[in-house]
Amino acid sequence: MLGVGEKFPDFSVQATVSTDKDLSKAFKEITNQDYKGKWKLYFFWPKDFTALALTELVAFAALEYELSELHARCVGASVESEYAHLAWRQQEPQLKDYAFPLLADTKRELCGELGILNERDGVAERATFIVDPEDIIQCVYVLGLEVPRDAGEVLRVLADLQGAKRP
Questions:
Q1: How far apart are CA 70 and CA 39, in angstroms?
Q2: Domains of the chain by start residue, with CATH
Q3: pTM (2 decimals)?
Q4: Which of 26, 105, 123, 150 could bridge across to 20 with cysteines, CB 3.0–4.6 Å?
Q5: What is the pLDDT of residues 14-44, one digit of tens each?
Q6: What is the pLDDT of residues 103-134, one digit of tens each?
């Protein structure tokens, strides 16, 4: 698994960015270059349509204002397809207006490069990466597949890291 001090990998992945019926508006190719020069918070979950993943997505969405105040970009990801993400967002009222892109790492390339692919189950580990503006990983936080993460704690770590990296 990639760790603190290592470069976050380059990627180009299809993402679900809205619930628009026009798929050209619902989907967008997202790359690491889209967030160049910004702090990034990448969080991965094993499967869509699960109560635990929904709880976490909603918790991160509740921090949208705080993340914007920290000039950080939040990106969610799983190995589910962009169509699965879209269906989940369309079905789940709490995700209809979700502010952050949901990456569809269906080829499992990003998860593989990060070292967070759970080979036994073929899903992403419940992992969080905080990445600085130079694309260097400053925090890695990985939990068991059934252990919930604390979005507020992730926000605190991001704020502390930003304070530590200020001149």
A1: 8
A2: 1-11+35-140 (3.40.30.10)
A3: 0.96
A4: 26
A5: 999 999 999 999 999 999 999 999 999 999 9
A6: 999 999 999 999 999 999 999 999 999 999 99
